[in-house]
Amino acid sequence: MYTIAVHGGAGRLSRQGLSSAHQQEIHAGLAAAVRAGREILAAGGAALDAAVAAVVVLEECPYFNAGRGGVLNAEGIVQTDASVMTGHDRASGAVGAVTGVRSPVRLARAVMEHSAHVLLVGRGAERFAAEAGLESAPAEWFIVERRRRQWQSTHAIQLDHDPTGTVGAVVLDRRGHLAAAPSTGGMLNKLPGRVGDSACIGAGTWADGRCAISGTGHGERFIEANVAGRIANLVELAGLSLPEATERVVHHELRGDGGVIAVSADGVLSLPFNSGGMLRGFLGPGGEIYTGIWDSVSRARA
């Protein structure tokens, strides 16, 4: 048994402001990410490999707030955060306030696997990426035109309601191992150096032997509520099921817009959100792919 779910942002998503063509692009991107992870899992691959592969697809897709297509900070630069965590050994790696690294999630994995640290930020993280041989890209590669227009239209710091946002994946592989991996461009017009929940283990991401969790929404509120860690604690210490724990935290404890994707060690998926919508994709029980933006989901083409 294996499964995977991905997210691509959560917030006050307007149906009127999202054209049919844009919806199709979002559904296609989410399905492509799930498909990339499914291919690895079907071949017996590891949860972490599948999670990273899925997130890289979304980082490369210009319709999401991660990697290419991320929101611009106050200086007009795309500055990214990401993390990875594996449940069987609770190993983790994270990066924050990074520029010029084409795949932040791959950098987070490199920190986990090839450094003595959990979190690297800013220039130190960028230097580590170069030493690790990770691919770089010029600043302009990350900026897409609609993000430039969005940045030019306001000077306010705000949660992205483009509608696409933070991306991430949670995975259960055939061995019963779990992994989680979020990646983000953060908040529009954020101060340079701001680090959000996607780089904070226990806030925007968590994985242990019972569950894996990745969050999307207002990062400051996720950090304050320790969302991912709180869900995991409710499962372990309070004996709640994963759906019960995610619903409680997202709908009753999180003081801001957002949602989570989570998977348990027995393959149960939970994808609650307290906002107008959450971009998400996941595997059905027969291996089919479903994607959704608002309350309903639809089956993607094989």
Structure overview:
The protein has helices at 20-42, 47-60, 104-114, 122-131, 139-142, 145-152, 219-225, 227-236, 242-253, and strands at residues 3-11, 80-86, 91-98, 119-121, 167-172, 178-184, 205-207, 211-217, 258-264, 269-270, 277-283, 289-292, 297-299. A hairpin with a 4-residue loop joins β2 (80-86) and β3. The protein has 302 residues and is of the alpha+beta class. The chain starts with a strand and ends with a strand.
Topology record:
Layout: E1 3-11, H1 20-42, H2 47-60, E2 80-86, E3 91-98, H3 104-114, E4 119-121, H4 122-131, H5 139-142, H6 145-152, E5 167-172, E6 178-184, E7 205-207, E8 211-217, H7 219-225, H8 227-236, H9 242-253, E9 258-264, E10 269-270, E11 277-283, E12 289-292, E13 297-299
Which tags fit this structure?
302 residues; alpha+beta; Glutamine Phosphoribosylpyrophosphate, subunit 1, domain 1; 9 helices
CATH secondary-structure class: Alpha Beta
CATH H-level name... which superfamily? (Glycosyl)asparaginase
Report the β-strand fraction as a percent range: 15-25%
Give the biggest sheet: 9 strands, mixed
Quaternary state of the chains: single chain
Helix and strand succession?
A: EHHEEHEHHHEEEEHHHEEEEE
Regions with pLDDT < 50 over 5+ consecutive residues?
none
